[in-house]
Amino acid sequence: MYAARFRSSNGFIIFVVGAAVFTDMMLYGLIVPMLPYALVDRVGISPEDIQKWNSILLGAFGAALMIGSLLFGWIGDRVNTRQTPFLLGLIALGLSTLAVAITRTLPILLAARIFQASATPSSSTSSAPRRSAKLSATSVWARASV
After folding, report:
1. CA distance linking residue 124 with residue 24, whole number of Å
2. Model-level pTM greater than 0.90?
3. Cα–Cα distance, 92 to 119 (Å, whole number)
């Protein structure tokens, strides 16, 4: 009984969402500066190609992040509970980060970064407040002019 109340408390929910967003941002902040070194030491890219592949990996991450945001936002608007997409996204984020950490080939690194970026928005879009009702342009205009 107490555990269910604690799990549903605002403080606990804010803590879990904050921890998820912090972990997501920390991982991104750690991977980006280390990516050129990983390309040389782990994947074996020549120093002349580091900038090209670093740009490709960052660009693919950004594109997959945008698509993942749209996907998780759409899913979040259509499911009854946001707990399942949130947890599935965090599990996918953990698995993709593990794949980024252990890979030694460029195609797998690229696929892992795309998968990682696709799973990243689960923590922010699944925890966003729901729309209570769809607003039409005329109702927004009517409320703004009052």
Report:
1. 10
2. no
3. 6
